[in-house]
Each structure stands twice: as C-alpha cells, then as structure tokens.
Amino acid sequence: MIAEDNIFNFSQPNIALPKNRLVSLAKECMIETVVHFKSYLKSGFHKKKKLSENDLTQLYSKQAQIVIRKKEYPFNIAEQYQDVYNQSKGFSDFFFYPNEQDVELSSLYSVESKRLPSPEKKREKEYVIGDNNNGGIERYKSEKHGKGLSECGLLGFIEDKDFKHWHTTINDWISDLCTLDKTSWKSDEALSEVDNNTEYSIYKSIAHRASNDINLDHLWIVLN
Predict the structure, then answer these.
(1) pLDDT tens digits for 106-123?
(2) 3-state class of 78 per DSSP?
(3) How far apart are CA 61 and CA 162, in angstroms?
(4) Beta-strand pair 109-116/91-98
(5) How many CA atoms lie within 13 A of 18 on its CB side?
C-alpha cells in the first residue's frame, strides 16, 4: 500500500509523502477548519465578544488542531512561528510542520492572518503594505515571512463588506503600488479568484522576491 492510500489510517505518522502533497493537505485542512471555526464563534464558549486579530487566529488554529487529530493528518500546527532554519526575520501567525521525531521541524506552510478591514484607518492597507514592511503580502515579498518556501498563505477575517469588495479593493491597492517610482510591485501580483461560496473564498497570487518568487494562497472567511 502506498503512503498516500493510508494517510488517514495509521498508528505511526508516515513521512513518505512528498512535501508538495503535505502542503496540499495543509490547505485542505485550512478549508475544513472554516465550518468548525465559524460554529465555535457562534457557540458562546468564548466570553470575549470583541475579538482581536490574535484572538481570531488563536481560535482558528485551535479548531485546526482538532481537525488534524481527527483526520490524523501527517503534520501539526503551531502559532507564532520564529524561523530558526532559514532565519526569516518575522513571526508567522501560525504554521504547519511535520509530526515526526528526528526530522527537520521547519515550516511546511506558513500563514499570516489579517482582519478586513484593518482595525485602524492608518493601517487601512495592511493586508498588502504596512509600516516597517509589515503588510501581509509585503512580508512575503521581503522574505520577512516564508524564506526558503515556495508556497505560503494568508487568512483573511472579513468583518465588513464582502468578498467582491475586498478582492477589488486589494487589487486596486496593488495596482496603485505598481505606478510608484522605483517600485518592486508588478501587475501580475494581483489576486485571482479560485473558489467562492457563502462561507469562504479562495484566491491565489504570486509575490516577486529579490531571490525568487513565492506563490500565495488567500483564504477569506466572512464573519459578519
């Protein structure tokens, strides 16, 4: 039996799967988590009603951990990833890593979370750019996140407006950046829609870095 046939039925984690398959499974796990995350938000188990970006990320990642255990995915998830392997300078909000002993535990797939809209007007464009190179996409362009990886993700919590509004708005911000002098932004870094339904929407984009490019997956969840 090949490793992939047995992925959800084993007593010991299987490391025979190639990295690109593990990344694909991590993306599947993120989508599976959406319904459980939204259900938990409505449950009333958490007492804090005005949830911050960190709060939302924590609740989402905890629900993802439950999905991982239930499905016996061959990886784990953890919050606040400091990259000691490729030495990215920033902290990813959460990341997926192999659940094997005696193997490298570097990130398979790192994710940055952002609220839409941003909580402050001065941080309005933070999904794309921010102060001190702290925008969501910007962090990947500068390798503050995702150094050494070819794929990473962004998780968007939509608290106002809808998917269409934010898709248009974010692409407009990127388009404006492309017109600046000495810019590193290119028109092909705009987001393209992959899937859209009432619960979540998925987009993809590419970010050009000094050394190479990185593919970005954008999973947006409507909370309003």
Answers:
(1) 789 999 999 999 999 999
(2) strand
(3) 23
(4) antiparallel
(5) 2
